[in-house]
Design a protein that fits this description.
With 337 residues, this protein is of the alpha/beta class. The protein has nine helices and 15 strands. The structure holds threonylcarbamoyladenylate and magnesium ion.
Length: 337
């Protein structure tokens, strides 16, 4: 294992989290803090990420601690360009094709680790593969370019909470636990990136997300395999069933409302009997991209209301609907702890 910058240490003890504007000065401050080994959240087109220098094990340890995330869960290394990504992992012709078709954008590729690559072992949770992403959000691009190192960035929420789609969600979860958040408004896509593993000549989907399956299969000219567990080490170890759990119980595919239930509706019809004060509609026109972009904010809003659980309307599973239904299923799963 290569331990880089072992002398860099994040500040100890509670910090007041700065909210940085997404201007030149704010970006420069964010990049400096990251280079110093501190934790800085920033917007990507999918959700806000909690960044740390991926080459600095001390910073990565602090990141796991701030999120309350189990250290066996590997992180995605974010870089600003395809060229930089190619230096981190081993890209087969198929992996390269996907990188060139969809980066920058809401796609994460898991490829074999480049032996000379700089990402520290802790950020990879000891795996010999690496998850890499080139986000297209202008603020993420600016932060990554200014930082000049790969940035590990899980979603900027406490482990087990819903992912943040605006800076206020980040502050709500991580205030006092991280150095700063760059304020970049609500995120465009709203659900995390699609994760595709390109290992051993197989192309498998590990997580549905912001890039629809159909777009990837069109470029590949073939159907994606389903991600499998690799022995004792699950392929996407972070895919715990209860990963996205709100406080209230969710009832999926609901076509009616039970007494006292809040309602997450979709499409022009809504759900019969829904209480207007307890209802939010992900997309009254039935637009799945709009629904994805609102999903986490609406789950948080409904979860904050006094209700006897949440009824969720049926949502079609094509396009971004696959990721929406995946997250809803996880939000509805019983807690592990
Ligand atoms: O949209 C996104 O992907 C956001 C933004 C911030 O980029 N990031 C994100 O990161 O969702 P995170 O840490 O919440 O989810 C990363 C997932 C986890 O389920 C993890 O287990 C999986 O990627 N992962 C990371 N490295 C892996 C590897 N080498 N093999 C398989 N799965 C991996
Ligand atoms: Mg996450």
């Amino acid at each position: 294992m290569t331990v880089k910058n072992p002398t860099k240490t994040p500040s100890s003890g509670p910090v007041k989290t700065q909210v940085l504007p997404a201007d030149a000065e704010g970006i420069e401050t964010a990049a400096r803090l990251l280079r110093e080994g501190q934790l800085v959240a920033f917007p990507t087109e999918t959700v806000y990420g909690l960044g740390a220098d991926a080459t600095n094990p001390v910073a990565i340890a602090a990141l796991y601690a701030a999120k309350g995330r189990p250290a066996f869960n590997p992180l995605i290394a974010h870089v600003a360009s395809v060229e930089e990504a190619l230096g981190l992992g081993i890209f087969s012709p198929v992996a390269r094709k996907l990188a060139e078709a969809f980066w920058p954008g809401p796609l994460t590729l898991v490829v074999p680790l480049s032996p000379a690559g700089p990402v520290c072992e802790l950020a990879r949770a000891g795996l010999e593969s690496l998850a890499i992403r080139v986000p297209d959000h202008p603020v993420a691009q600016a932060v990554l370019k200014a930082a000049g190192c790969p940035i590990a960035a899980p979603s900027a929420n406490r482990s087990g909470h819903v992912s943040p789609s605006c800076a206020a969600h980040v502050i709500g979860d991580l205030q006092g636990r991280i150095a700063a958040v760059v304020e970049g408004g609500p995120t465009r896509v709203g659900v995390e990136s699609t994760i595709i593993a390109v290992l051993d000549n197989e192309v498998a989907m590990l997580r549905p997300g912001g890039l629809p399956r159909e777009a990837i299969e069109a470029v590949l000219g073939q159907a994606l395999a389903v991600g499998r567990d690799a022995g004792s080490q699950p392929l996407a170890p972070g895919r715990l069933a209860s990963h996205y759990a709100p406080e209230h119980a969710l009832r999926l595919g609901a076509t009616h409302i039970e007494e006292g239930e809040a309602c997450l509706a979709f499409g022009p019809e809504g759900i019969e009997g829904a209480h207007p004060g307890l209802t939010l509609n992900l997309s009254p026109t039935g637009d799945l991209a709009e629904a994805a972009s609102r999903l986490y904010a609406f789950l948080r809003q409904l979860d904050a209301l006094p209700s006897r659980g949440m009824a969720v309307a049926p949502i079609p599973s094509e396009g971004l609907g696959e990721a929406i239904n995946d997250r809803l299923k996880r939000a509805a799963a019983p807690r592990l702890s």
